[in-house]
Amino acid sequence: MMSCVRWLGRGILLFCLLFVPHGVLAAGVQPEDFMMRGVAIGATESDVRSAFGAPDYDLDGRRWGIPLKTFTFPGAFEITLNRRTHCVVEMKTTSRDYVARAGVRYGATSYYLKKIYGKAERRYMEGRAYYVYENPHATHIRLLLETDVESGSLLSTCITALPLTKEEADAWQLEEDGQELPAEESLTNLLAPQPDIDTSALPEQPEVRLGGLTN
To answer: In which element (H, E) is residue 139 found?
Structure first.
């Protein structure tokens, strides 16, 4: 009887290893979830072009007072760089062909998203619904999964180091000791590239919204 139990246990483990997609066994975000085609927050324009090719066009804008440049690449990819640091601060795609870890792609159900990334409450921003996940190693870097308001299926994937609201941007303008700094200075210092974490600075009007640049 005991040998049968051992055999059954080994059989279940073997089935999981062979047939369950990588990353499904343990729900929760992983470092690769905060990268897109191998590009991470803090990467250079050269890194971006190596991964995505030549952009179709680019557009300048500002958010939270810091200048940005957003490149649009073939296949529905938008990569935003801080024009001061020339580093990536946001990456977004609405591509139906883009496949993230564990087979997550356009149309994935809310159930599957939570199964892979863990539980999260849906947040509503600018009339859109998102599951928001923080990078445990750099909490100002977030993974935003836009979902259909009714069906809950995945519509877009965004990795960002930018504040999501004005209130959040105001909070990020505080120095560690609690004293306020000029907006541009404090936000730049907060998200400037650091030796142990690849991040960059932060962005205002005309605004760059989650869906792209606005006039």
So the answer is: strand 138-147
